[in-house]
Amino acid sequence: MTDVSDSRVSLNETAYRQLRGDIIACRLAPGQRLTEKQLAADMGFSVAPLRDALIRLDHEGLIRTLPRKGYQVTPLTPKSIDDLFGVWGLVGPELIRLGLRQASQAQLDAAREAFDGLDALSQEQGGSPSVLLDIDVVNRTFEVLAEATGNTYLINFFQQLMGDMSRIRALLLTSDRTSAATGLADHWVRHILDEQDVDKAAEHARRYIEDVHQHVLRVIIRWPSVMSSEVSVLPPR
């Protein structure tokens, strides 16, 4: 009985991770409509684990449930992207300031080692590693800094932002050759880990986030999956 239960949990988790990875990497485009039957045929899972995955992703805000119509990958719109960067520009530098101030040496070393591993993989493959690996390392670094703050609200808030920030990064890396070609050794997140002055690190992050914000707004018109996304207006309560 235990084996059956463990198998089901494992299958559910596998379906969740695969579906989440497809959304984060934008292989499932923002605004794309989904059905359980279609996903089962495309991914090779039965409906039960996919339904569990879709419920989890709905809770994370990456999927929207459409009553009697199936599901939709949560759209990214010009306004939602602008709003997201506005919030990240306020929260990100402070998360970095507090995280660097309170992180242990072991936590900082673990974050640096993740970038070293990404560099090594890039050299082995003779080019840039996959977009998902790049995003995973950046996310893990910010998770370390968020956890180091010890602030539950800040940790939860970062986790809410992480999915959409990852999707924007994937779109940027896959559609903008300049961003994709940036050397990992020069990655701005790596630089803030090595900065001795936490206030300077936070200010560097603020400037970088604003630069990327403006860059994304300039290139957003080349992202059909974003520009064609539906904009839903909720009725007043």
Automatic annotation (TrEMBL):
The protein's name in its UniProt record: Transcriptional regulator
InterPro entries (alphabetical) = GntR_C, TF_FadR/GntR_C, Tscrpt_reg_HTH_GntR, WH-like_DNA-bd_sf, WH_DNA-bd_sf
Pfam families for the chain: FCD, GntR
What the entry lists under PROSITE patterns is as follows: HTH_GNTR (PS50949)
Q: Which UniProt keywords apply?
A: DNA-binding, Transcription, Transcription regulation
Q: Which organism is it from?
A: Lentzea pudingi
Query: Any idea where the HTH gntR-type domain is?
Result: 9-76
Q: Which domain of life is it from?
A: Bacteria
